[in-house]
Specification:
Blueprint lengths: L13 H16 L6 H11 L13 H14 L4 H19 L9 H15 L3 H22 L23 H12 L8 H15 L3 H5 L6 E2 L6 E4 L8 E4 L2 H14 L18 H14 L8 H16 L2 H8 L15 H15 L1 H5 L27 H11 L1
Antiparallel strand pairs: 1-2, 2-3
């Protein structure tokens, strides 16, 4: 090795070699699992020695498919995979229109992000998600292949703090009333929409979780009815309590349909599984018919369930457990929520939503104004909700 201080011309002396070995050892001790050449390349770059660029020979399309396959194998949700696919496809389309642009240069990524904001006019939350998705991808690719990370020194946009809308009990009652009286009544439409709205607000399920439910996932008999969310956010399953009143109505619906265990609980009018666009449309119709100024979505009803439950109990850990928050298994303050508390939580949400009053006078399959809406020999239902339990615990804590 030449030891004449010619490092600036690309020649590495013995001291630099020793520094490389020390850097590699330190990285391994710190748990860095990148290939050795990637760590060495980073160390050499820090010494100021120029290296041949590897990015020209790297296919972003192939890297994208490998990244998506990696995410699928780790159980990431369908919506997460779609978001990554859309973001990377948009970036690749941008690069195709700029021959010779270096995808691994910070200036190229800045130009793409500026163009994306100007072209798509995304909301702050949407732009933040696009930035972080691409940053995760390039961070992985840089560690895996030793190419430069164009996001390395890019400051992330401030994460937007959004407070989602929620409905008061009076607003939700108006939403239900509008669902019972659609502008274009079709057989089964009003009953389905009403039951969907009640299920969303009584359980706090996410849109994808509600749509994915099969009858086999529901346990409707016994004193503690529940449903199984097979693939929640992050691919995590959980068992969700059901208010007894809602469980009875769902049991009646299944009986009237003669539905098999593998069939979906909520369907479109054609009989297939309810689709996200149809769910969004039915909520939008009901909100419009109710004259609500708020933007109402499935997430609004989930947030409504959380808000009502917090108001009823004052217990944030119970709300987190009831909604299946991602960190429930690792955050100690969420770790001791008893099963009985969760079922009392279901009763509290049902009481706030007026669930019993909404379900009491109706029979599954009957439209407003039809005859025979009372079941023969059926006794009036009485509330099984222990409304005072959760409030007594909240009072004791205060």
């Amino acid at each position: 090795m030449v030891q004449d201080g010619t490092r600036s011309r690309g020649i590495v002396d013995d001291a630099a070699v020793a520094s490389l070995h020390a850097g590699l050892s330190a990285a391994r001790e710190d748990g860095d699992r990148r290939p050795p050449f990637a760590i060495i390349a980073e160390c050499i770059a820090e010494l100021g020695v120029p290296l041949p660029r590897q990015s020209a020979d790297l296919s972003l399309e192939q890297a994208r498919e490998e990244w998506l396959a990696r995410l699928r194998s780790s159980g990431r949700s369908k919506s997460a995979l779609t978001a990554y696919r859309v973001a990377l496809a948009d970036l690749l389309a941008f690069l195709e229109n700029r021959p010779g642009a270096d995808a691994f240069a910070e200036a190229t990524i800045v130009a793409y992000l500026d163009g994306y904001r100007e072209r798509a006019r995304p909301a702050a939350a949407t732009y933040y998600r696009r930035f972080t998705l691409l940053r995760h991808f390039f961070r992985w690719l840089s560690r895996r292949s030793g190419v430069p990370d164009p996001f390395l020194e890019l400051a992330a946009p401030k994460k937007p703090q959004q407070e989602a809308d929620w409905l008061t009990a009076e607003e939700f009652a108006r939403l239900l009333a509008a669902a019972r009286s659609p502008l274009r009544p079709r057989r089964g439409l009003a009953e389905r929409d009403r039951l969907v709205l009640l299920s969303l607000v009584a359980t706090g399920l996410r849109r994808s979780e509600l749509i994915a439910l099969d009858w086999a996932d529901l346990e409707l008999e016994g004193p503690r009815p529940s449903l199984l969310v097979r693939c929640g956010k992050g691919g995590r399953p959980r068992r969700q309590p059901l208010p007894p009143q809602l469980a009875r109505e769902l049991a009646q619906l299944r009986h009237s349909l003669g539905a098999a265990a593998e069939e979906p609980v909520f369907c479109g009018l054609g009989g297939g599984r309810l689709q996200p666009t149809i769910l969004a449309n039915l909520i939008r119709r009901a909100a419009s018919g109710a004259g609500l100024d708020k933007r109402v979505t499935a997430h609004t009803l989930r947030h409504t369930a959380a808000t009502w439950l917090r108001q009823e109990t004052g217990d944030a850990r119970l709300v987190a457990a009831y909604l299946g928050h991602a960190d429930l298994s690792t955050v100690s303050r969420y770790a001791h929520v008893a099963e009985e508390e969760l079922h009392e939580a279901a009763a509290a949400v049902a009481a706030r939503s007026g669930l019993e009053a909404a379900l009491e006078p109706r029979e599954v399959g009957k439209q407003p104004g039809t005859h025979g809406s009372t079941r023969a020999g059926a006794a009036p239902r009485r509330s099984a909700i222990g409304q005072g339990g959760a409030r007594r615990r909240a009072s004791a804590r205060s």
